[in-house]
Amino acid sequence: MLRLLLVLVFTLGASLAFAQEPPGGSSLIQQGNNPLSIPAITLSTDAEGQQEYSVSLQILLIMTALSFIPAFVMLMTSFTRIIIVFSILRQALGLQQTPSNQILIGLALFLTMFIMAPVFDQINREALQPYLSEQLPAQQAIERAEVPIKNFMLAQTRESDLELFVRLSKRTDIATPEQAPLTILVPAFVTSELKTAFQIGFMIFIPFLIIDMVVASILMAMGMMMLSPLIISLPFKIMLFVLIDGWALIMGTLASSFGTL
């Protein structure tokens, strides 16, 4: 994903640089009181019948795509499952602000990049690089880029969730999961990710809940009603999490749940 962002930024910067200084060093502002010329936004068709976009229109499309990157990261990758599991883990440990939200989000982003690396490499190899080398038109490059993302989401989406949104859309022309458009596949994928994240979070919560119950029972038997069990159980939960190498276990489980390991 970082490689794709850098390619988009450098492409945009190069296009703007060429647009600011045309060949020959002539100024964009003509002599006299003529207004500043505005680059044309055109759409043409080449000899093979394929559509070609002007540089200005390509820049506009790139800027629009950049605005959708946060939604893409959160809803079409492994980020949703990872950040929910991390949040449930922090709640199970009884730590309110440790690790902080910034650390959890950063860790979730880098783990997402690790899990999604094969998908991004395939997009870069089959769609982005041929488009940048002018071997593919923009429309065909977008269609090729959709294939790896759809395959990833289909592998993580439950059939029941996909059938639910197909039924809600009242589409009768979808016979196989591969025919589902992104407008149907994305909400089905997010629903499945929420279910899976909650299942993993439930399994994480059980051992820490047992520690809380044991500590509460001991304090009640000793008559120490005024002492909060959370204060006493917190160091025991942290010690247990460290002894079992909890962070490596959690991140390894998350990565293997996507079939990465």
TrEMBL record:
It is found in: Cell membrane; Bacterial flagellum basal body. It holds the Pfam family FliP. It comes from the Bacteria. Keywords: Bacterial flagellum, Bacterial flagellum biogenesis, Bacterial flagellum protein export, Cell membrane, Cell projection, Cilium, Flagellum, Membrane, Protein transport, Signal, Transmembrane, Transmembrane helix, Transport. GO terms for cellular component: bacterial-type flagellum basal body; plasma membrane. It is a multi-pass membrane protein. Belongs to the FliP/MopC/SpaP family. This is Flagellar biosynthetic protein FliP. It comes from Phytopseudomonas flavescens.
